[in-house]
Amino acid sequence: MPENYLERIKWLRTLMRAKGWDAVVVTGSDPHCSEYPAERWKQVEWLSGFTGEAGDLVVTLDHAGLWTDTRYFIQAEQQLAGTGIVLHKTRVPEQVLIPEWLERQFGGEGLLAVDGLCLGADFAQSLPGTVLSVPDLLGRFWTDRPAVPQTPVYTVDPGESRREKIDFLRDFLRKTDCDAILLTALDEIAWTLNVRASDIEYNPLVISYLLITQEDICWYVLKEEVEDPQTKATISILEADGVRTLPYGDIDYLASEFSGRLFVDAATLNFQLYSELVGAGVALEEGTSPVGARKAVKNVKEIAGMREAHLQDGLAMERFLYWLERSVDAGREISEWDAAVKLGQLRADLPGYLGDSFETISAYGPGAALPHYVTPHDYAPVLRDGGLYLCDSGGQYECGTTDITRTVPLGRCSALEREDYTLVLKGHIDLAMAVFPEGTPGCRLDALAREPLWRSKRNFGHGTGHGVGWLLGVHEGPQDIRQNLNPMPLQPGMVVSDEPGIYREGKHGIRHENLLLVVEAGQNDFGRWLAFEPLTLCHFDTDALELPLLDRSETDWLNAYNERVYRTLSPQLPREVAAWLREKTLPV
Amino acid sequence: MPENYLERIKWLRTLMRAKGWDAVVVTGSDPHCSEYPAERWKQVEWLSGFTGEAGDLVVTLDHAGLWTDTRYFIQAEQQLAGTGIVLHKTRVPEQVLIPEWLERQFGGEGLLAVDGLCLGADFAQSLPGTVLSVPDLLGRFWTDRPAVPQTPVYTVDPGESRREKIDFLRDFLRKTDCDAILLTALDEIAWTLNVRASDIEYNPLVISYLLITQEDICWYVLKEEVEDPQTKATISILEADGVRTLPYGDIDYLASEFSGRLFVDAATLNFQLYSELVGAGVALEEGTSPVGARKAVKNVKEIAGMREAHLQDGLAMERFLYWLERSVDAGREISEWDAAVKLGQLRADLPGYLGDSFETISAYGPGAALPHYVTPHDYAPVLRDGGLYLCDSGGQYECGTTDITRTVPLGRCSALEREDYTLVLKGHIDLAMAVFPEGTPGCRLDALAREPLWRSKRNFGHGTGHGVGWLLGVHEGPQDIRQNLNPMPLQPGMVVSDEPGIYREGKHGIRHENLLLVVEAGQNDFGRWLAFEPLTLCHFDTDALELPLLDRSETDWLNAYNERVYRTLSPQLPREVAAWLREKTLPV
Fold first, then answer.
1. Complex confidence, ipTM
2. Nearest-CA distance B431 → chain A (Å)
């Protein structure tokens, strides 16, 4: 219903004229700069109808534009049709990002209104002109806006106590000569306090702020209305460790009450709070929070948990793929949505399953050409005999987090499908086989996964790998494997995805994804060596392979991996599934 | 003779005590931040005896240290023995660079003396403490210090006139709102004015500064004593294009005479001149000179010239390798030095040869394990039957510049030698075969050349590739292919080397180097594509290969390359050399 969006933009322009604003910048984030915000903060979606996971809007009196990256170009063009909102492409060589675009429009003289709660201080400061923070800007018109979520909070035991973690942060304060650190990123707070909740779909996080000084631990959290015994017990446990619980809204008093030197990470601190702190004269030490790099290196218990989670997840995946193949072979009518539901049910039966780690992408044929396709609930495309089916999914388990993509042939595939399928797998394997010296950042390995595609002038527009949290966000930094020159070295204990792909609009989409654990690989005259160990346990289908495109070492890797999957999973699979998996994992 | 160096350091400390300096920082550079300075500015060598091409010294009252990178560790340890000077390793994970080391010594409070002429403004500003510029600091003791060189200057025609280049710079001034640009890097000046000389060995450069305004072109150049007709003719030609020639020393008046906004590149502007400009209140616009990126993209005529230069150079190389093999087979006693002399003679016979592009590295067996080995004039090791011989060399020709390394077996090789030989070649080939999207910086391709070595936990400590000038420096930026995350994209027309290696102290050293031209490789739905075309024409020896370590695509590349070398060169080679080359280039 583009009418809605036209009306909302129209209302916004009326407000802009009344206030004398030149532009309004609306981002898809929340007061904690989360990648995935709760419904309340899906402002870009409310204003434009665009549901992609990354997108920012700029509205001026004569232009409305959505900035998003390669992953969402096709989706954005479809969803913006009729709204008058223009797509501005990012992560392409000719990109003009929002700050530069605004500079060209207003020459640095513009009066730019933003909801400062939903904008990182870093990003706000990159905007040219006068930036005016108007908290809850859209709330004036968005009358049925959802409330801030409040779900029960529970504790977890990841092998390191919250006392140890707080000691680590207090050490950091001493080293940086600061009196306090304000954690604003939700995954950093959850990690530090060893707490989880379900405030954001798929992300087991608690919407809150955390202030740590040498004497005090203040947790600003919205749990006034939560009467459940679990939350109460959690708060008692935290109190015993010296954590004081304050109302979420009390963060507004921080600026006036705090004195001393405060460490903040401007990448996850919202512009409204940042402005209040600066306005009150608080001495800010800006830098990268030390939690990110520490959290990314999993400890022994977390690693054991991740291995167990992937074993469980692999059982669900293999049962799912068995069911899928049998169903399609039998000619049963199964839609993309049915398949996603089936996989969800299989996961839900597993011990320790808490929920999915993101919304399952279940896509057949051309649908899979959208790298972040959203499977429609109603009238979802039906799976046919022939062509490729892609499924990107993951689970949150008590012992860890999973994220896996498998693309499987449903019967006959075209020569191009087979070639693409094989070259993407070749890239996946080349990265998985990599050995590299310590100190190597992921960006230096990215080309290993791409060169097999590049050689035949094919490519994919998303990153090759992202970090993954332990019972936290399925995307976490600071490490990654992508085009951007991110200098963070890969370190033993880090988890990254390995997910090259290829997407041909109107034809097919392919992605092969495992999670990899960075492991030690010995030391010699040339230094210390690292390598990857696949955590994911689910076979790669060999039916769609063009074998001559694989080198011997790649085929060897594939056979060894599939054999390991079979040996590890088959004892816990129903007999008929195990027998089927035996066939699927025979060496090529 | 370490006594000399001990005495010099002692003298320096006496001066330091008298002046109250905490440290003296001595770099291996000249007033133009050249990578290869003339003899006059080889200060590190004079003070320490270390002759490596990269090294900086810091002397305090109780410590003397030389900072150099992986390439020179073995050489530095040998040359510094007995001097009391300690080696500080750089380009290793645990490196402590000079600024950080000084910070640890003096906590930012030190009084640091430098010869500001021989230190880039960027580097000087990175030093903690008070930096005192003392021009010609060592001259007080270095009584037989060589003069600034003055060699004849000639013009070249690289396909773009100096007027076009000056127009390009004047456009740049308009865009950046500057009144003048001061070029300080010698290769940038030679490129802009289309002039060359031999002021620095192997580098056809003119020691000078160049100031360009919208009205004026001022060339500060030390040619007062040069009476030769060529230099006079050159100056007349330049005058006709509006270039005024001023004495080199007059650059000292620039600070007091110039008014307006001056663009400078602090990476190649010396600290002394920088300080004078700042002291006189000149408005400096600091940035990267636009000449570097423009110069790196060769035009049609330069590319044709580079191809011709490599054809000529290949003829010399093949005659050399033929002579070498025949001589060793015949049991003649040939030293590393004899071999280098022979190659120099063969190059000198070629049309358009102007000189070598750097000092030939001719190294047999363990000598080759020093990546930048200097072949001794006297008592050079003799080549034996068996093992590997490495030769890294290049020529300056009227039509371009070459740089090539070949490692060849002299008879039987050990299993390790063969494995290393093959894996390094595998890396060389994998990079040479790369196809990549436009916008890709070289650092993203570096791992392609390394992964074949990494897989068996081997590596090399130098970069994989450097840019190469057209009848200019054999090392030029801004592009490269190495570990550092240099964001400069590779662009069609750029030239880079492809030179992976492996070095085993006391055993052997291997490097395989071609120069590659970046070329267009078409456009499709996935974007614009680039690839490499090898410029170098000289076969890779197949006798030392462990064929099972190469994939089919790598063997195909090697066979096609060797065949191309044979077909291109054989018509111009003596019959017996052509017949030999036919044998050497048979497919494997």
1. 0.90
2. 10
